[in-house]
Amino acid sequence: MEKARIAGLVHDCARDLPPDVSRKLVAQWGISLDEIEVAEPKLIHGPLGCEYARRQLGINDPEILNAIRFHATGRVDMSLLEKVIYVADCIEPGRVYRGVANIREAAGRNLDEALIMCQDQKLLFLIKKGAMIHPRAIDARNSTLMHCRVAREALVKGVD
Ligand SMILES: [Fe+2]
After folding, report:
1. What was the pLDDT predicted at 159?
2. Residues 115 and 88: beta-carbon distance below 8 Å
3. H helices of the chain, where?
4. pTM for this predicted structure
């Protein structure tokens, strides 16, 4: 719980940095970005936030750092803490999109069920917006479905 508190508090620590500062820190700290991260600058705050938390905030716990790093896309075989932060980010009180109440309710019942709902919601949102989708987000969704019966069942239920 302590790790979740810390990761929850700092996961967006690099989100509101001015773009020129973000670019400078990425170069200065040697953070390697792939072409999708470069093309969709919003994605940079995950990997940059991870380094920012380590270097500027003194956080060295790899679990917390990975939860920060992957909170925007998810990834294959997410840890429990990564799932918790990803889902919490999707359903925090400031979120008002259609269906958020259902996901909040699912989160109280089963984390993987809530996770697949969040992943679907995020992918649909990006498609509607015409934004690029990071392949890691697709892989993350497939991984959730591959490993979790509850997530697959939730998806089938949602389609009906
Ligand atoms: Fe974020």
Report:
1. 57
2. no
3. 2-10, 19-28, 35-39, 45-55, 62-69, 80-91, 100-107, 111-129, 135-147, 149-159
4. 0.92
* 120 in the same domain as 46: no
Please report, as a single letter, which amino acid is at residue 122: K
The 8-class DSSP code of residue 60 comes to -
**Tokens coding 7:** 């990761």
Q: How remote is the CA of residue 46 from the centroid of ligand 1, in Å?
A: 7
Q: How far does residue 148's CA lie from ligand 1's centre (Å)?
A: 25
Residue at which a domain ends, from 45, 72, 99: 72
7 CA to centre of ligand 1 in angstroms: 11
Both tokens of residue 27?
């170069």
Do both 50 and 92 map to the same domain? Answer: no
Angstrom distance (rounded) from CA 33 to CA 35? 7
